[in-house]
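Give me C-alpha coordinates for this 296-residue protein.
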Amino acid sequence: MPEMRRSELGAFLKARRADLRPAMVGLSEDGTPRRVPGLRRDEVARLASVSVDYYTRLEQGRLPASATVLGSLSRALRLDEAQRAYLYDLAGKPMPSRPHRPEQRVRPAMQRLLDRLDQAPAMVLGRYNDILAWNAAAAALYEDFARLTPAERNYTRLVFLSPTFQALHVDWEDAARVGAATLRMEAARDPDDPRLADLVDELSRRSAEFRQWWSGWVVSTASYGTKRFRHPLVGPLTLDCDTWANPDDPEQRLVVLTAEAGSPSDEALRILTSWNAELITPSGGRPRPGPAPRLR
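Here you go.
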Protein backbone atom coordinates (compact mmCIF):
# COMPACT_ATOMS: atom_id res chain seq x y z
CA MET A 1 0.00 0.00 0.00
CA PRO A 2 1.68 3.29 -1.11
CA GLU A 3 2.60 5.69 1.68
CA MET A 4 0.46 8.46 0.15
CA ARG A 5 -2.62 6.24 0.22
CA ARG A 6 -1.95 5.35 3.84
CA SER A 7 -1.72 9.05 4.61
CA GLU A 8 -5.04 9.71 2.86
CA LEU A 9 -6.66 6.85 4.75
CA GLY A 10 -5.41 8.27 8.04
CA ALA A 11 -6.72 11.73 7.16
CA PHE A 12 -10.12 10.25 6.31
CA LEU A 13 -10.29 8.37 9.61
CA LYS A 14 -9.37 11.53 11.50
CA ALA A 15 -11.98 13.61 9.67
CA ARG A 16 -14.70 11.07 10.26
CA ARG A 17 -13.73 10.77 13.94
CA ALA A 18 -14.08 14.55 14.29
CA ASP A 19 -17.63 14.41 12.88
CA LEU A 20 -18.93 12.10 15.59
CA ARG A 21 -20.01 12.88 19.12
CA PRO A 22 -19.88 10.17 21.80
CA ALA A 23 -23.68 10.08 22.05
CA MET A 24 -23.90 9.24 18.34
CA VAL A 25 -22.06 5.96 18.87
CA GLY A 26 -23.55 4.96 22.18
CA LEU A 27 -20.84 6.36 24.46
CA SER A 28 -21.66 8.43 27.51
CA GLU A 29 -20.09 11.84 28.10
CA ASP A 30 -18.67 12.64 31.52
CA GLY A 31 -19.25 16.39 31.15
CA THR A 32 -15.57 17.34 31.12
CA PRO A 33 -14.31 19.62 28.33
CA ARG A 34 -12.94 17.74 25.32
CA ARG A 35 -9.66 18.86 23.80
CA VAL A 36 -10.56 17.53 20.36
CA PRO A 37 -13.77 17.78 18.34
CA GLY A 38 -15.66 14.55 18.03
CA LEU A 39 -14.33 11.23 19.29
CA ARG A 40 -10.91 10.66 20.82
CA ARG A 41 -8.56 8.06 19.38
CA ASP A 42 -8.95 5.82 22.39
CA GLU A 43 -12.74 5.86 21.97
CA VAL A 44 -12.51 4.81 18.32
CA ALA A 45 -10.00 2.11 19.23
CA ARG A 46 -12.35 0.77 21.91
CA LEU A 47 -15.32 0.74 19.54
CA ALA A 48 -13.28 -1.04 16.86
CA SER A 49 -11.72 -3.51 19.34
CA VAL A 50 -8.13 -2.57 18.45
CA SER A 51 -5.35 -1.12 20.56
CA VAL A 52 -4.93 2.64 20.84
CA ASP A 53 -1.36 2.32 19.54
CA TYR A 54 -2.54 0.38 16.48
CA TYR A 55 -5.26 2.90 15.68
CA THR A 56 -2.86 5.81 16.19
CA ARG A 57 -0.46 4.30 13.66
CA LEU A 58 -3.31 3.93 11.17
CA GLU A 59 -4.23 7.61 11.49
CA GLN A 60 -0.57 8.59 11.13
CA GLY A 61 -0.26 6.54 7.95
CA ARG A 62 2.45 4.33 9.44
CA LEU A 63 0.91 0.95 8.64
CA PRO A 64 -1.71 -0.62 6.35
CA ALA A 65 -5.08 -1.83 7.56
CA SER A 66 -6.35 -5.37 7.16
CA ALA A 67 -9.79 -6.12 5.76
CA THR A 68 -10.94 -7.23 9.22
CA VAL A 69 -9.87 -3.95 10.80
CA LEU A 70 -11.51 -1.97 8.00
CA GLY A 71 -14.80 -3.71 8.77
CA SER A 72 -14.45 -2.89 12.47
CA LEU A 73 -13.65 0.74 11.72
CA SER A 74 -16.59 1.02 9.34
CA ARG A 75 -18.92 0.00 12.15
CA ALA A 76 -17.17 2.06 14.83
CA LEU A 77 -17.26 5.25 12.73
CA ARG A 78 -20.82 4.65 11.47
CA LEU A 79 -19.80 4.83 7.82
CA ASP A 80 -22.53 4.77 5.20
CA GLU A 81 -22.15 2.71 2.02
CA ALA A 82 -20.33 5.46 0.07
CA GLN A 83 -17.93 6.18 2.93
CA ARG A 84 -17.33 2.49 3.47
CA ALA A 85 -16.49 1.99 -0.21
CA TYR A 86 -14.11 4.97 -0.08
CA LEU A 87 -12.36 3.56 2.99
CA TYR A 88 -11.74 0.19 1.32
CA ASP A 89 -10.59 1.92 -1.86
CA LEU A 90 -8.03 3.98 0.07
CA ALA A 91 -6.79 0.80 1.73
CA GLY A 92 -6.55 -0.99 -1.61
CA LYS A 93 -8.85 -3.75 -0.42
CA PRO A 94 -11.97 -5.16 -2.13
CA MET A 95 -15.09 -4.27 -0.20
CA PRO A 96 -16.79 -7.48 0.96
CA SER A 97 -20.25 -8.01 -0.40
CA ARG A 98 -23.14 -8.35 1.98
CA PRO A 99 -25.45 -11.33 1.60
CA HIS A 100 -28.98 -10.44 0.58
CA ARG A 101 -31.44 -10.81 3.43
CA PRO A 102 -34.90 -11.47 2.01
CA GLU A 103 -37.85 -9.52 3.32
CA GLN A 104 -39.54 -11.29 6.18
CA ARG A 105 -43.13 -12.34 5.71
CA VAL A 106 -45.54 -14.08 8.03
CA ARG A 107 -47.23 -17.19 6.66
CA PRO A 108 -51.04 -16.98 6.35
CA ALA A 109 -51.36 -19.85 8.83
CA MET A 110 -49.53 -17.78 11.45
CA GLN A 111 -51.88 -14.83 10.87
CA ARG A 112 -54.85 -17.18 11.27
CA LEU A 113 -53.37 -18.37 14.57
CA LEU A 114 -53.02 -14.77 15.75
CA ASP A 115 -56.62 -14.04 14.82
CA ARG A 116 -57.89 -17.06 16.74
CA LEU A 117 -56.35 -15.59 19.91
CA ASP A 118 -59.11 -13.01 20.10
CA GLN A 119 -58.64 -12.18 23.79
CA ALA A 120 -54.88 -12.67 24.04
CA PRO A 121 -52.69 -9.89 22.62
CA ALA A 122 -50.23 -11.55 20.26
CA MET A 123 -47.73 -10.44 17.66
CA VAL A 124 -44.86 -11.74 15.55
CA LEU A 125 -41.53 -9.96 15.92
CA GLY A 126 -38.84 -10.30 13.29
CA ARG A 127 -35.36 -8.92 12.77
CA TYR A 128 -34.55 -5.75 14.67
CA ASN A 129 -37.75 -6.36 16.72
CA ASP A 130 -39.86 -5.27 13.75
CA ILE A 131 -43.55 -5.95 14.32
CA LEU A 132 -44.39 -8.19 11.35
CA ALA A 133 -47.92 -9.22 12.32
CA TRP A 134 -50.38 -8.77 15.16
CA ASN A 135 -53.94 -9.48 16.17
CA ALA A 136 -56.72 -7.09 17.11
CA ALA A 137 -56.12 -7.69 20.83
CA ALA A 138 -52.50 -6.54 20.51
CA ALA A 139 -53.60 -3.42 18.67
CA ALA A 140 -56.18 -2.76 21.41
CA LEU A 141 -53.55 -3.11 24.13
CA TYR A 142 -50.70 -1.15 22.52
CA GLU A 143 -51.97 0.94 19.61
CA ASP A 144 -53.32 0.37 16.13
CA PHE A 145 -50.12 -0.68 14.36
CA ALA A 146 -51.83 -0.43 10.97
CA ARG A 147 -51.81 3.36 11.37
CA LEU A 148 -48.01 3.38 11.61
CA THR A 149 -45.56 3.33 8.73
CA PRO A 150 -43.48 0.14 8.34
CA ALA A 151 -40.40 2.02 9.61
CA GLU A 152 -42.27 3.07 12.76
CA ARG A 153 -43.56 -0.46 13.35
CA ASN A 154 -40.61 -1.56 15.46
CA TYR A 155 -41.10 -2.65 19.06
CA THR A 156 -37.80 -1.32 20.42
CA ARG A 157 -38.21 1.99 18.60
CA LEU A 158 -41.71 2.39 20.04
CA VAL A 159 -40.59 1.53 23.57
CA PHE A 160 -37.90 4.21 23.51
CA LEU A 161 -39.52 6.92 21.39
CA SER A 162 -43.31 6.61 21.73
CA PRO A 163 -44.89 8.49 24.68
CA THR A 164 -47.86 6.12 24.39
CA PHE A 165 -45.66 3.05 24.88
CA GLN A 166 -43.72 4.68 27.69
CA ALA A 167 -46.89 5.57 29.58
CA LEU A 168 -48.35 2.11 29.00
CA HIS A 169 -45.47 0.17 30.60
CA VAL A 170 -45.44 0.35 34.39
CA ASP A 171 -41.94 -1.17 34.38
CA TRP A 172 -40.78 0.87 31.39
CA GLU A 173 -37.10 0.68 32.25
CA ASP A 174 -37.19 -3.13 32.26
CA ALA A 175 -38.97 -3.20 28.89
CA ALA A 176 -36.53 -0.70 27.41
CA ARG A 177 -33.48 -2.58 28.70
CA VAL A 178 -34.76 -5.79 27.13
CA GLY A 179 -35.40 -3.93 23.87
CA ALA A 180 -31.82 -2.66 23.78
CA ALA A 181 -30.47 -6.08 24.78
CA THR A 182 -32.28 -7.91 21.98
CA LEU A 183 -30.87 -5.43 19.45
CA ARG A 184 -27.41 -6.12 20.87
CA MET A 185 -27.98 -9.83 20.20
CA GLU A 186 -28.99 -8.90 16.65
CA ALA A 187 -25.78 -6.92 16.22
CA ALA A 188 -23.75 -9.93 17.31
CA ARG A 189 -25.34 -12.04 14.57
CA ASP A 190 -24.89 -9.48 11.78
CA PRO A 191 -22.73 -6.50 12.81
CA ASP A 192 -22.60 -5.10 9.26
CA ASP A 193 -26.36 -4.87 8.74
CA PRO A 194 -27.07 -1.31 7.51
CA ARG A 195 -30.73 -1.41 8.61
CA LEU A 196 -29.68 -2.25 12.15
CA ALA A 197 -26.99 0.46 12.09
CA ASP A 198 -29.57 3.06 11.06
CA LEU A 199 -31.91 2.00 13.86
CA VAL A 200 -29.15 2.09 16.49
CA ASP A 201 -28.02 5.50 15.23
CA GLU A 202 -31.54 6.93 15.49
CA LEU A 203 -32.09 5.56 18.98
CA SER A 204 -28.66 6.74 20.12
CA ARG A 205 -29.40 10.27 18.92
CA ARG A 206 -32.87 10.48 20.42
CA SER A 207 -32.66 8.52 23.67
CA ALA A 208 -30.12 9.03 26.44
CA GLU A 209 -31.27 5.80 28.09
CA PHE A 210 -30.64 3.81 24.93
CA ARG A 211 -27.14 5.28 24.61
CA GLN A 212 -26.37 4.27 28.17
CA TRP A 213 -27.68 0.71 27.93
CA TRP A 214 -26.32 0.11 24.43
CA SER A 215 -22.81 1.06 25.53
CA GLY A 216 -23.20 -1.31 28.50
CA TRP A 217 -23.28 -4.32 26.14
CA VAL A 218 -26.23 -5.93 27.92
CA VAL A 219 -27.74 -8.94 26.11
CA SER A 220 -30.91 -10.91 26.75
CA THR A 221 -32.50 -14.17 25.62
CA ALA A 222 -35.51 -14.08 27.96
CA SER A 223 -38.45 -16.07 26.56
CA TYR A 224 -41.05 -15.50 29.27
CA GLY A 225 -41.93 -13.14 32.11
CA THR A 226 -44.60 -10.88 33.54
CA LYS A 227 -45.49 -7.45 32.19
CA ARG A 228 -47.45 -4.76 34.00
CA PHE A 229 -49.41 -2.17 32.05
CA ARG A 230 -51.35 0.96 32.89
CA HIS A 231 -53.93 1.18 30.12
CA PRO A 232 -55.81 4.47 29.60
CA LEU A 233 -59.11 2.63 29.00
CA VAL A 234 -59.19 -0.27 31.47
CA GLY A 235 -56.53 0.63 34.01
CA PRO A 236 -53.91 -1.76 35.43
CA LEU A 237 -53.14 -5.07 33.74
CA THR A 238 -50.73 -7.81 34.81
CA LEU A 239 -50.07 -10.21 31.94
CA ASP A 240 -47.85 -13.23 31.44
CA CYS A 241 -45.64 -12.88 28.36
CA ASP A 242 -44.41 -15.97 26.52
CA THR A 243 -42.24 -16.07 23.40
CA TRP A 244 -41.77 -18.92 20.94
CA ALA A 245 -39.37 -19.18 18.01
CA ASN A 246 -40.96 -19.83 14.62
CA PRO A 247 -39.76 -23.26 13.38
CA ASP A 248 -39.94 -22.03 9.78
CA ASP A 249 -37.89 -18.89 10.42
CA PRO A 250 -35.75 -18.65 13.59
CA GLU A 251 -35.61 -14.87 13.11
CA GLN A 252 -39.37 -14.65 13.77
CA ARG A 253 -40.78 -14.91 17.29
CA LEU A 254 -44.39 -15.30 18.39
CA VAL A 255 -45.17 -13.22 21.50
CA VAL A 256 -48.39 -13.91 23.39
CA LEU A 257 -49.75 -12.07 26.45
CA THR A 258 -52.30 -13.82 28.68
CA ALA A 259 -54.03 -13.17 31.99
CA GLU A 260 -54.89 -15.65 34.70
CA ALA A 261 -58.46 -16.86 34.19
CA GLY A 262 -60.96 -15.00 36.35
CA SER A 263 -58.45 -12.35 37.44
CA PRO A 264 -59.14 -8.60 37.23
CA SER A 265 -56.67 -8.44 34.34
CA ASP A 266 -58.58 -11.18 32.52
CA GLU A 267 -61.81 -9.23 32.87
CA ALA A 268 -60.09 -6.02 31.78
CA LEU A 269 -58.76 -7.76 28.65
CA ARG A 270 -62.26 -9.00 27.80
CA ILE A 271 -63.64 -5.47 28.12
CA LEU A 272 -60.78 -3.96 26.12
CA THR A 273 -61.03 -6.40 23.23
CA SER A 274 -64.84 -6.17 23.05
CA TRP A 275 -64.75 -2.37 22.96
CA ASN A 276 -62.21 -2.35 20.16
CA ALA A 277 -63.67 -5.17 18.06
CA GLU A 278 -65.18 -2.76 15.55
CA LEU A 279 -62.47 -0.10 15.67
CA ILE A 280 -59.22 -1.86 14.81
CA THR A 281 -58.12 -4.73 12.63
CA PRO A 282 -55.26 -7.22 12.74
CA SER A 283 -52.21 -6.92 10.50
CA GLY A 284 -53.01 -6.92 6.83
CA GLY A 285 -56.35 -5.16 7.32
CA ARG A 286 -57.25 -1.53 6.88
CA PRO A 287 -57.44 0.63 10.01
CA ARG A 288 -60.96 1.77 10.82
CA PRO A 289 -61.48 5.44 11.70
CA GLY A 290 -62.76 6.74 15.00
CA PRO A 291 -61.49 6.78 18.58
CA ALA A 292 -62.16 3.98 21.03
CA PRO A 293 -64.64 4.71 23.82
CA ARG A 294 -63.15 5.64 27.18
CA LEU A 295 -64.14 4.81 30.71
CA ARG A 296 -66.08 7.58 32.44
